[in-house]
Design brief:
This protein is an alpha/beta fold and 177 residues long. Helices cover 21% and strands 39% of the residues. It binds inosinic acid (IMP) and magnesium ion. Inosinic acid (IMP) binds next to strand 5 and helix 3.
């Protein structure tokens, strides 16, 4: 099968680089949240592999919850109009929340989520994104933890998909159309 799904282009972040950086981020998070309990909120589905690797290396007690959102728009560009497909299972008021994303592109999805979560009055709310692209700088997202800054290309692998394909790759590659 090819065509609609494109193909796997050059590797932008290798498996070794990903894993080493995730270990560093987990150490930073563990130090920053020392003495506190963390509620990690993942955005489905792209962030699942990142969250799974990250939380297993975090040393403070943590709970996990997930949201699923869809942003209207074409396959490779988000429109900024976000619909919640699955909301959180538990209330977050008074909790220390770390929102974990796969990639911040325009930042529109995240700015919507941030406003939505902030209105539920968590004790603290920080953002951790595995990847960022240059577009997000326009929105000046207060992203506390960033894995890698990428150029403005569409990427696949390690949770990120194109038409639901390629999530299972252990590295990040450029999509070739
Ligand atoms: P934003 O609203 O433009 O920041 O887009 C965020 C969402 O679009 C991400 O959480 C991804 O689900 C998706 N997305 C953005 N860029 C990519 C990419 O390069 N590969 C796969 N998904 C992407
Ligand atoms: Mg996503």
């Amino acid at each position: 099968m090819s065509g609609d799904y494109g193909s796997i282009g050059r590797t932008l972040v290798s498996e070794e680089e990903l894993q080493a950086r995730i270990t560093e981020i987990a150490a930073e998070v563990s130090a920053d949240y020392e003495g506190r309990e963390l509620l990690v909120i993942g955005v489905l589905k792209g962030a699942i592999f990142f969250i799974a690797d990250l939380v297993r290396r975090i040393s403070v007690p943590c709970e996990l919850d997930f949201m699923a959102v869809s942003s209207y728009g074409s396959a490779t560009h988000s429109s900024g109009v976000v619909r919640i497909l699955k909301d959180l299972d538990i209330p977050i008021a008074g909790r220390h929340v770390l929102l974990v994303e796969d990639v911040i592109d325009s930042g529109l999805t995240l700015s919507y989520l941030l406003k939505n979560l902030a209105s539920r009055k968590p004790a603290s709310l920080e953002i951790c994104s595995l990847l960022t692209k240059p577009g997000h700088k326009r929105l000046k997202m207060p992203t506390r933890y960033i894995g890698f800054d990428l150029p403005d290309v569409f990427v696949i692998g390690y949770g990120l998909d194109h038409a639901e394909r390629y999530r299972e790759l252990p590295y990040i590659a450029e999509l070739e159309l």
